[in-house]
Hints:
The protein has helices spanning 4-9, 37-44, 58-71, 82-93, 108-120, 133-139, 162-172, 184-187, 221-234, 240-250, 253-272, 305-310, 341-346, 363-377; strands spanning 75-79, 99-103, 124-128, 144-150, 175-179, 197-201, 215-219, 279-281, 294-298, 316-317, 327-329, 353-357. It is α/β, with parallel strands linked by helices. Helix 7 links the parallel strand 4 (144-150) and strand 5.
Amino acid sequence: MKRFDTKSVQLSIKNTNKINSKVTPIYQTTAFKFSDLDDLEKFYQGEQDYLYSRVGNPNTDELGQAVAQLEDATDGIATSSGLSAILIGILAVAKSGDHIIAATDIYGGTYQLLAKELKDFGIDVSFVDFTQPKEIEACIRENTRLLYTESITNPLLRVEDLDRIVSMAKEYQLYTMIDNTFATPYLCQPYHKGINLVVHSATKYLAGHSDVTAGVLVGEKELIEKAREKAVNIGTNLSPFDAWLAVRGIKTLSVRMERHNANAQKLSNKLSQHRAVSKVYYPKYVTPKGNGAIVSIDLTNYCNMELFFKSLQWVKIVPTLAGVETSVSYPIATSHRALPKHVQDELQITEGLVRISVGIEDAEDIIEAFEYAIESSVITK
Ligand SMILES: *Cc1c(COP(=O)(O)O)cnc(C)c1O
């Protein structure tokens, strides 16, 4: 390797395997090299882990395994987004001609995936009010494979009865899949309760800093293997750098969630007493550790919404959640915009509904910011 052009291309001088870095390095590589054909054969014999990053990469594996550990599941896989993790999870248990049952009040993007794309794949989907077990049972058919719902729903924060879902699934021999994004494994471990597949938008609390789009699916090894095959064939892999950032985020999940939960509890207590807030949605008794960090409030008939959003000072208007900074979103204009009007009405997605993603700042500052925005936008009669 003597000539300049060759030297400038062959720049991988450091063999990271010989450098004892404290944290896992970023394997930002599309593929892995082999010393000879015997070495290559080792991959196919299962003695070597990595070949090509769409098929597997140390950083994405680390993320999948990290979340599997937190959920006490046997295996996990990281993907490019929460939605792609949901897709490969469903495809692991259902194919064309099958039927799945999902809760009506799931995340808007998931609703689109199920209602539009899965139907085009030939997988039929029924949306049912999961507070009504009889309605779920009435929907079960011979080709039904899966019950799909969320541990804490968005944006009205209904806490799902996981034990009921598990026992119904056992009775009818169905698979179960839970989106655990809002609760995180800090508050809730659905796999522990007997749920087969647990999915996360790691974009939210797991990564936690609003700089990564990623998903993770965890569950029993056999199902995750099936999902992995789908992920490889469809190409839902995550970039190594994003996986590395998500793993870094997870290291502070507990301390972030502790503060997120405490601040959300204080804000919900305070806003519940406010004369211009007609309703506060904040779950009770999710776990002794807390009740999550999303507080939704309904200001319909009390506040001018344009003024409210203009008066938020340092609180950002962002159509997502779960960052360390407090932010608000407006479901009717973003996450739930695509839903038919009658579904919005059924779900109580009103003109005055604001979803607050409570951050880890000082609780007093957060409370003052919302009191100011509400006072500044109250409609005087
Ligand atoms: C954000 C979110 C998703 C989708 O995740 P992406 O990473 O944006 O694909 C799914 N479910 C819930 C509950 C979410 O909040």
